[in-house]
């Protein structure tokens, strides 16, 4: 004789504390118990039967619905009730007129007094599904962005770079013949051409960083990377009207290892060039220091420029952020931020004393 299990399960008040909808079916598919979450869902969605749905045959209702997911749920539940399956699950949409939502149905059988029952639980998985949709959309956008950046990189590195090289070469040839009144204008042309070259390098580095986003990090000698970047900047401005004086390299530790990619050099090249470009003094002074800690190392680049207002200290690293008097595009600092982030590091700006700014880069030590 079939036991009155419907009476027993009514005492399972603990199930009312669960946020998911839980019901129990007998072996005919009739609902004999539902918890509070099940009742509330029925009330909130104005179903055509009592919110607790007790006494309703779950299988008959599902079979009568003109919905492919309902038919799949019915088939899975029958498999469990007949013993053909032990545990089944089904993800399905259940949208309201105003809200998109998805649920996961999980059905598990059990035996009580030789009678077979099935516990049916419905989990709200809307947040997960929406997150997956967003991730899929973002992956498609990333693919499109990479294709666009690859094309941009090709144009920059071939067509535009060739034209800029001609401007620089012609300007250098003219420098031997031009009269003093025109020297200032020629210097501006050469400075602008140099900046365009640096911008091309920054954008190219950014494109490469995206294309190599899955490249594993390797050990890099930070002291050498920074020293090489300093030497490169000094060579760039040698003989130019702007006098660039960079100190501190002699105090670097002999070797400090960090995990990075070969693009680590772009971080410090961009920061050093930024310090020069945004400084209107006749002599640009930059001090570079490397401070080793237990687990990290901090590189500080202190300059004697105009400084950075507090409200700009973080936004300056944004994709299109640049100072109102900046001759650049802001892409260089954006590249710095993204590269350092990919190395599990951080970058920030402090005030220098008595004037100027300090750009700080912290990286994990190997």
Summarize the structure.
This protein is 43% helix and 22% strand. It has nine helices and twelve strands.
Describe the protein's architecture and organization.
- This protein has 366 residues and is of the alpha+beta class.
- It has helices at 5-9, 36-44, 58-64, 68-81, 126-175, 180-211, 222-237, 264-277, 331-342, and strands at residues 21-25, 31-34, 88-93, 102-112, 115-124, 218-221, 243-247, 257-260, 283-292, 296-303, 346-351, 357-364.
- 24% of the residues are buried.
List keywords for this structure.
366 residues; alpha+beta; five-stranded antiparallel sheet; five-stranded mixed sheet; 9 helices; 12 strands; elongated
Structural class determined from secondary elements:
alpha+beta
Mean pLDDT: 84
Shape: elongated
Helix content: 40-55%
> Which strand order does the major sheet show?
2-1-5-4-3
Helix count equals 9
Kindly provide the radius of gyration, computed on alpha-carbon positions and rounded to a whole number of angstroms.
33 Å
User: What order do the SSEs take from the amino end to the carboxyl end, as H and E?
Assistant: HEEHHHEEEHHEHEEHEEHEE
DSSP strand count: 12
For the sheet with most strands, the description reads: 5 strands, antiparallel
Question: What is the strand and helix layout of this fold?
Answer:
Elements: H1 5-9, E1 21-25, E2 31-34, H2 36-44, H3 58-64, H4 68-81, E3 88-93, E4 102-112, E5 115-124, H5 126-175, H6 180-211, E6 218-221, H7 222-237, E7 243-247, E8 257-260, H8 264-277, E9 283-292, E10 296-303, H9 331-342, E11 346-351, E12 357-364
Parallel strand pairs: 7-9
Antiparallel strand pairs: 1-2, 1-5, 3-4, 4-5, 6-8, 9-10, 10-12, 11-12
């Amino acid at each position: 004789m079939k036991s009155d299990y419907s009476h027993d399960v009514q005492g399972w008040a603990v199930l009312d504390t669960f946020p998911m909808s839980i019901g129990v079916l007998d072996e005919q598919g009739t609902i004999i118990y539902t918890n509070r979450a099940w009742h509330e869902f029925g009330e909130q969605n104005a179903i055509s039967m009592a919110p607790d749905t007790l006494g309703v045959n779950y299988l008959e209702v599902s079979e009568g619905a003109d919905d492919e997911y309902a038919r799949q749920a019915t088939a899975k539940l029958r498999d469990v009730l007949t013993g053909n399956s032990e545990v089944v699950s089904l993800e399905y949409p259940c949208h309201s007129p105003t809200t998109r939502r998805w649920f996961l149905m999980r059905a598990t059988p059990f035996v009580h007094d030789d009678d077979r029952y099935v516990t049916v639980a419905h989990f709200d998985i809307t947040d997960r599904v929406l997150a997956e949709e967003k991730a899929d959309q973002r992956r498609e956008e990333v693919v499109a962005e990479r294709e666009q950046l690859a094309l941009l990189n090709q144009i920059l590195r071939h067509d535009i770079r060739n034209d800029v090289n001609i401007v620089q070469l012609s300007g250098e040839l003219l420098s031997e013949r031009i009269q003093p009144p025109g020297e200032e204008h020629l210097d501006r042309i050469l400075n602008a051409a140099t900046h365009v070259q640096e911008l091309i390098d920054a954008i190219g580095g950014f494109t490469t960083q995206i294309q190599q986003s899955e490249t594993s990090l390797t050990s890099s000698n930070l002291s050498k990377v920074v020293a090489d970047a300093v030497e490169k900047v000094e060579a760039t401005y040698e003989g130019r009207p702007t006098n660039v004086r960079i100190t501190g390299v002699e105090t670097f530790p002999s070797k400090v290892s960090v995990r990075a990619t070969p693009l680590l050099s772009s971080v410090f090249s961009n920061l050093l060039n930024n310090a020069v470009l945004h400084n209107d003094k006749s002599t640009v002074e930059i001090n570079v220091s490397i401070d080793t800690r237990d687990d990290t190392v901090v590189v500080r680049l202190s300059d004697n420029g105009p400084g950075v207002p507090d409200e700009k200290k973080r936004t300056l690293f944004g994709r299109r952020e640049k100072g109102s008097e900046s001759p650049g595009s802001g892409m260089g600092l954006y590249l710095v931020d993204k590269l350092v982030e990919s190395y599990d590091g951080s970058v920030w700006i402090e005030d220098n004393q008595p004037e100027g700014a300090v750009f700080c880069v912290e990286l994990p030590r190997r």
